[in-house]
Amino acid sequence: xxDRYSRAEMARIWxxxxxxxxxxxxxxxxxxxxxxxxxxxxxxLNRIKARAxxxxxxxxEIEQTTRHDVIAFLTNLxxxxxxxxxxxxxxxxxxxxxxxxxxxxxxxxxxxxxAGLERLRAALRALAIAHKRTLCVGRxxxxxxxxxxxxxxxxxxxxxxxxxxERLRRARETVRVGKISGAVGTFAHIDPDVEEEACHxxxxxxxxxxxxxxxxxxxxxxxxxxxxxxxxxxxxxVEVRSLQRTEIGEVEEPFAEGQKGSSAMPHKRNPVGSENIxxxxxxxxxxxxxxxxxxxxWHERDITHSSVERVILPDSTILVDYMLHRFSGILEGLRxxxxxxxxxxxxxxxxxxxxxxxxxxxxxxLARQAAYEIVQRNAMRAWTDRRSFQALLAADPAVTxxxxxxxxxxxxxPAWYLRNVHAIYRRLNLS
Length: 431
Fold this sequence. Notes:
This protein is mainly alpha-helical.
């Protein structure tokens, strides 16, 4: 069944309503700290909390005149709070509000992404366990290499998904930073302990040092992590696409009742989901590049980063959230064809056992290069003449002089190649 996804939850985080609500949270946290220090009367704080309202439409209307979003926000607050608004935004600059509130948004977005990654990893774990012994051919350069299992492919992806979870958790912490140090970050009009206490009220850590902004290497790291997550998803998607090709046909995306593959060709069942993942990964990587451009700003700040972040942070978190859920649905419903995998093994006439033959010959006393030439000569003949590699070796005196029939036959037992699969699974804590 194809997964149905709604971006409403992630989109809500980046809505105007949520943005202004987080701005208000920052302002109220600072007011709370000031009140604890006696800098704001307690009754005034109570009135501020009771009356403070934000109206996104009204803020946007005011901004048409002010051409400054934070001033429009503060003007709207003054309209709802009244004279007590003089206690709001004391000693603060716009970026104190913007950057600290952005950290709140990124925490929420990260939590959704982490949940999506957990779901993806669970789907990969299930595939790895279900196909631990499902024999297939491993490929290098797209060419048959040696036997492996389809479960090992999924186990590899499972391990990478675990690394991505760790990366995203670290990146979440990297951007879990607020800044309330005033213009150019000197705390000239607001004390450092106010910043510390206000940030802790919000569940954030204060930046140890800042200019007028939280430094953008933090956000670049966050975006780079999203790009790696997207690249990992693309990596799996490319494999699914390749294995679904008609000539291979080892796996297939779920195909829903009533789904159509082509307007012209009724027989088509295309890997469109995996292709979507591949295309979207390009966007996320491009957005990460833009985040790196945001690191270098003029002096204590300019606002060249601001317009970029208004696009890349919502877009990238929404995209990766969608990619995780879309691809998890594909993997949960992935059709795997073990019989086709076995058919494909036979298409190379037993050539994938060549290294085992090589090692048995060297073990029997032949020099490696001499053994290599014997094995390669028979392998090339098997491929060009489309004949059994094992039969050609069994008829070659250069081989039979060193290997008996039973010893040669043992070289073509796929079980040999799978004897350490369990050890790999044990390393990954996969049962």
